Amino acid sequence: MLIDTYYLNESPLCADDAQLMRTHNIRTEDDKIAFKNVINDFFIKKDDGYHHSGCDERMKEVYEKSEKARLSAQKRWNKKRTQCERIENASESQCERNANGMLPNTYNLEPNKNNSQESKIPPCPHEKIIDLYHKTLPELQTVNKTLWKGSKREKDLTARWRQNEEFRKSEFWNWYFNSVKQSVFHMGENDRQWKADLGWLIKKDNFIKMVEKFSS
Predict the structure, then answer these.
(1) Could you please report the per-residue DSSP string of the chain?
(2) I want to staple 195 with a disulfide (CB 3.0 to 4.6 A). Which of 79, 86, 162, 188 is the partner?
(3) Residue 138 reports pLDDT greater than 80
(4) pTM, whole model, 2 decimals?
(5) Residue-wise pLDDT tens digits, 184-209
């Protein structure tokens, strides 16, 4: 369980033993003894929390592969953008819009605060975004559309859609899903063969963390 938390958060465990036991449902005396043995035998306490050398080394390898994939994708899209810029009298070709949409410098993650704008937000195109997810990430878990309506996932996607004007553009979701595709960790290349899915990708905390990571 501790290693699962380590990989999911992509960071060392917190250094507060009481909090770790509470969040991992360590309640009985036997569980507490086992917890102490595992922490003492396999983890090293540092200023930023408990480190696991094997997990750190594995994540380093994954990050290096992800960075190489990201740079490779960036090189391809920069080449396409350069080609588009050479088109005479084309102030903004479709090709250029795609290239810009795939590689934004930053995305503003603050929600819209203008009430008049809020009332004009179009409905979230759930089916269109789900179809794009399926098309871009066929390796990840398929969404059953009949179970989508009324679910927590539907509410999460609506919230992300309404959160900011940028997230209401098809170019953003195309960029987001393609960025996930370049992240080998989220595509299953980890010790547990865990893969992200659409529900995980649109949860508020996960979504913000991923967008900030891919935009940096």
Answers:
(1) -HHHHHHHHTSPBPS-HHHHHHHTT--SHHHHHHHHHHHHHH-EEETTEEE-HHHHHHHHHHHHHHHHHHHHHHHHHHHHHHHHHTSTT-SS-HHHHHHHHHS-S----SPP--HHHHHTPPPP-HHHHHHHHHHH-TTSPPP-GGGTTTSHHHHHHHHHHHH-GGGGSHHHHHHHHHHHHH-TTTTT-STT-----HHHHTSHHHHHHHHHHHH-
(2) 188
(3) yes
(4) 0.53
(5) 999 998 888 899 999 999 999 999 99
